[in-house]
Amino acid sequence: MPSAETTRTHVQEPDPVRPTKEDEVAAAGSELIGGPIGRWALLGSSWWTPVRVIALVMLGMFALGMVQKFSCYDGAWFFGASSQYTHACYSDIPHLYQGRGFADGLVPYFDKLPGDMDYLEYPVLTGVFMEVASWLTLGGGSIQHLEKIYWMVNAGMLMVCAVIIAVCVARTHRRRPWDGLLVALAPAFALTSTINWDLLAVALTAAAMLMWSRGRAIAFGVLLGLATAAKFYPFLVLGPLLLLCWRAGRWRDFGKALAASVGAWLLVNLPVMLLAPEGWSKFYRFSQERGVDFGSVWLIIQQRWNVQISPDDANTYALVLMVLACLGITALALTAPRRPRFAQLAFLVIAAFILTNKVYSPQYVLWLILFAALARPRWRDFLIWQACEVAYFLGIWMYLAYTTSGDKHRGLPADGYHLVILVHLLGTLYLCAVIVRDILMPERDVVRRSGDDDPSGGVLDGSPDVFVLGHAAHPPRHAAHNEEHPQVSWGWDADERRSP
């Protein structure tokens, strides 16, 4: 009788999924570069592997995003309040070089800042990133010249983060490396990458997702904890993971991930928390005390109907809606006919946070692009959503141009800005809707239709359910029969995972 090891050697992995074969938009778009994937792309010895191509495309798109900021680099950041908005090239980075004390050598969280902003209002790991960039900002000259250099240094560091994101997405779904092009070619990614420092947290989250897909729960937890030390939102990913591990009975793996996340977060935060508690808590106090701001549905309500919403009320409303959304996601995860994929639930929970939050800065789209490419790798839906986000990107700058141009009123008035906020909200809700449909109708899921179960799910990939609610807990006989023979639909490594 052949051994398990011998059996594994005879299991042939299915071919990589070719997007030009399953996606009509990808096939049509490929005509710009010579048509659908062919025999040269399938040569194993070719240097042009999918990961390398995607990394180079990301570098090119990031560079185009930097070029788009040229008008501001050439003077609009410094010599005209409204011109940086009319050219849609605004960035926080040069303004905060002096505004947060980096130009004066102040130490984040330990040294007080002059004016109303008493301490740096960013999480610790992002503060470290900003400080390292200030160390690399060398040279003399005017403060404007140094701010340009500071932006350029940060752009170089953020470019590394962008490539990491694209490569991690390309490698997370083993059979679908070309899905990484969704990230690399996303127009909103290129436009918003150098507005702020969000790419650091996104890169760490992308690396965490890659580690989980490889079954490395501790490495996933460490990277996710570091991502949470750079931005709060990655911690929300543990919620969907809890639900999926609950349904699959993978408590030990979830426990490892949670412990590693908390440990990594404490490793970064605890020294600053103990030595500079007031500076460390500034980010959390600022988030709590911040009023209704740009991009949120609460701003439309406040301006349209002249209703004043206090920060406390906005926090309460947002929290209630977020809890309701999470309850809905919980019901979906535990009652779906087939266990949802990790990336699907992660997208839904981050989208819920964005939709209910009291502020939506244009760079927040970066939080979702990673999960969108993994959850719904379909070019039509992705581009519809991206078009909505680009509209919002242009709309917020035109609105700010209108409010800062005085009597000239150049730009977009409040009514027009409310419209682009709605476009952003509806675009995100549209992508949520198609993902929910994929969960309720797994046969419509493009990833599962190609023969995989949950490529980003790691230990969840191909695992049987141990806790299910609703109709899914009592499948018909033919469905139960399919569960006994999962290799038909669980993808490239189902036979190997089931081997003794």
UniProtKB/TrEMBL annotation:
Origin superkingdom: Bacteria
UniProt keyword annotations, A-Z: Cell membrane, Membrane, Transferase, Transmembrane, Transmembrane helix
GO cellular component, one term: plasma membrane
Keyword Methyltransferase among UniProt keywords: no
Residues that span the membrane, as ranges: 47-67, 149-170, 182-212, 218-245, 257-276, 314-334, 346-370, 382-402, 414-436
Descriptive protein name: DUF2029 domain-containing protein
A GO MF label: hexosyltransferase activity
Lineage, highest ranks first: Bacteria, Bacillati, Actinomycetota, Actinomycetes, Kitasatosporales
